[in-house]
Design goal:
With 441 residues, this protein is an alpha+beta fold. The strands form five sheets. Strands 19, 20, 21, 22, 23, 24, 25, 26 and 27 form a nine-stranded mixed β-sheet that branches. Helix 1 crosses helix 4. The protein is flat and about 85 Å long. The structure holds flavin mononucleotide. Flavin mononucleotide binds next to strand 9 and strand 11.
């Protein structure tokens, strides 16, 4: 059995109140009375043994595409099952006097509240919860789209209010104004230190250098000993400055603005310094090193011939092509070995011609091949083969080393295979024997 009510201003979202078999018919009456003025309100009186199916039928019959579900006590289990079975239809779930079992993961926002504050307290909690505007988007997709913006990486620190330094990794840094000197960062409300930052007299922004990826990982963690594990000193305005940073700004709190699931923390710069260290970069969930990108640009603009190639994986195997210069020889997909100098766009054309849909990721190596004097720039990436064509797929454990063109290619692929095994790639610049290897994600 179901009852439905909505008042003249009931333009809000639909709310489904669940009344299990053992619940009194009066349950939710004070909530229904209030919320029916602004929402389409439906109450389900569970009758059979399949309350999820009953709820779904009711929503179908009333042509309600999506709903907020409210349940009390053990009826919370019905709400849980409904949300798990129909995640597209359940926008939010509010539990009153019900603790979902541990490890419960619902995709929608959840409210837990108690009945002991009386009907008014429940109404207040529900009104606040149901009044929150939800994004119309899949948040993972939105996060990926935001991640297309290349940023630097900072560690934001504060001396705090209790003498305990706090800090976390942030890429939401923005310079705001020169007169007065202002900057901002955004702090997630889920961060353990959000309240400390909200109330602290100031904070420092440390712009990380490309040597500091590990420090970034440390401060993005929940470790309680972040400041014991890092090298730092107090700044002129009292906030911790991380040693080795490319730049730092010690700030007084200027303004705190509430912004959805973050707060915007604006700081007035009291002191700052910078070095010529290369800043660490971040894009699409990966760290990038601008120094290496620069090495690639330099290599490409140098007088010698430039080869641009790719180490591609397809279904976990290495993509190779026949070497036109040697019978039985194999090469990596590369542009510029013959003809004009290679470039990334030529490499793309070549991959398309060979029937591959390839995504080139980050740079893997930039070096001068001593045998050929060529400047070599190699990216790593993934390839989807539309047509097998001329491609040869090799297992990483069984690369046909003697069919590869030179020692530089062999030594680069040996390193790739080893780093692939442990899932941690480094970037390499130099020649095939000496150079610097830098860790990136
Ligand atoms: C590259 C990167 C950038 C990040 N940017 C931010 C950010 O701008 N704001 C934020 O609140 N958290 C950001 N985080 C997540 C925090 O560093 C992380 O949640 C941290 O655990 C918060 O520390 P706390 O919970 O100990 O306060 C970022 C993490 C990484 C790896």
């Amino acid at each position: 059995m179901a009852s439905e009510g909505h008042g003249p201003r009931a333009t809000g979202e639909a709310i489904l109140f669940i009344r299990g078999k053992r619940q009194a018919a009066r349950l939710w009456a004070p909530q229904i009375e209030i919320l029916a003025a602004t929402h389409r309100v439906v109450a389900l009186d569970v009758e059979g043994d399949d309350p999820v199916a009953e709820a779904r039928r009711l929503l179908d019959d009333l042509a309600i595409p999506s709903v907020n579900v409210v349940a009390c006590g053990d009826d919370g289990l019905i709400a849980l099952d409904l949300a798990a079975a129909h995640p597209q239809r359940v926008r939010r779930v509010a539990f009153v006097d019900f603790e979902p079992p541990e490890n419960t993961r619902l995709l929608c926002p959840v409210l837990r509240t108690r009945a002991d504050g009386g009907p008014e307290a429940i109404n207040g909690a529900l009104a606040g919860f149901l009044g929150q505007r939800l994004s119309r988007f899949d948040n993972r997709e939105l996060r990926s789209a935001f991640g297309s913006f290349i940023t630097g990486v900072t560690i934001v620190t504060t001396a705090g209010v209790d003498g305990q330094p706090r800090g976390f990794t942030a890429n939401s840094f923005t310079s705001v104004s020169l007169e007065p000197p202002l900057l901002l960062i955004c702090v997630g409300k889920a961060a353990a230190s959000v309240d400390v930052f909200r109330h602290a007299a100031g904070f420092a922004v440390n712009i990380l250098s490309e040597e500091q990826k590990d420090t970034s990982v440390l401060f993005a963690s929940k470790r309680p000993d972040k400041f014991e594990a890092a090298r730092w000193r107090p700044g002129p305005f009292g906030n911790p400055l991380i040693e080795g940073s490319a730049a730092w700004f010690d700030c007084a709190r200027y303004q705190v603005i509430d912004a959805g699931d973050h707060i915007i923390l604006m700081g007035h710069v009291e002191a700052f310094a910078y070095t010529d260290a290369n800043p660490l970069g971040y894009a699409r969930g990966h760290y990038i090193t601008l120094g290496l990108e620069q090495a690639a640009v330099n290599a490409a603009s140098s007088a010698s011939r430039t080869v641009v190639g790719a180490i591609l994986e397809s279904d976990g195997r290495l993509v190779l092509l026949p070497d036109p210069a040697r019978p039985d020889g194999l090469i990596l997909p590369e542009a510029g070995r013959t003809g004009p100098n290679g470039s990334a766009s030529q490499l793309h054309h070549l991959l398309v011609r060979e029937g591959m849909d390839a995504t080139l990721g980050f740079l893997f190596a930039v070096f001068e091949n001593p045998e050929t004097r060529e400047q070599c720039i190699y990216y790593r990436g993934e390839a989807l083969l539309h047509a097998r064509g001329r491609t040869v797929l090799a297992d990483f454990e069984d690369i046909p080393w003697d069919r590869l063109p030179d020692e530089a290619t062999r030594s680069m692929l040996r390193r790739f295979a080893a780093e692939r095994k442990i899932g941690r790639f480094k970037v390499y610049s130099g020649d095939h024997r000496q150079g610097t290897v830098k860790a990136v994600d």
